[in-house]
Amino acid sequence: MLVEGTNCPRGYIKDFQVYDPHRVGRVTVELQGRVNDCKALTYRQDIKAKDIEAYRLRTLPTRQWGYVVITTPDGILDHEEAIRRNAGGQVLGYFH
């Protein structure tokens, strides 16, 4: 199964592809604009909705910008949207 998308929020993601052969999947993301650092986690860290803000403060070097990317039951969301929807999930990575 291959899913492609171009309608990404905030203008940081130019394009992405999700390739999911059965259980182990791969997400390829093409970023645009000025990104200082981008980390993908090789392990999926579970996070509750109430703990997202603390994780963001601990992980990102600045409060002004940067996003934690979380896979939730509502789809792949940045930390702001996950907090708005009160949805926890697994941390995929972050960029700033």
UniProtKB/TrEMBL annotation:
Gene3D superfamilies xrefs: 3.30.1370.30, 3.30.1490.10
One GO term describing the cellular component: ribosome
Keyword flag Ribonucleoprotein: yes
Single Gene Ontology MF annotation: structural constituent of ribosome
GO biological process: translation
Ribonucleoprotein recorded as keyword: yes
Pfam family, one: Ribosomal_S8
Alphabetically ordered keywords of this record: Ribonucleoprotein, Ribosomal protein
PANTHER family: 40S RIBOSOMAL PROTEIN S15A
Entry's family note: Belongs to the universal ribosomal protein uS8 family.
UniProt-recorded name of the protein: Ribosomal protein S8
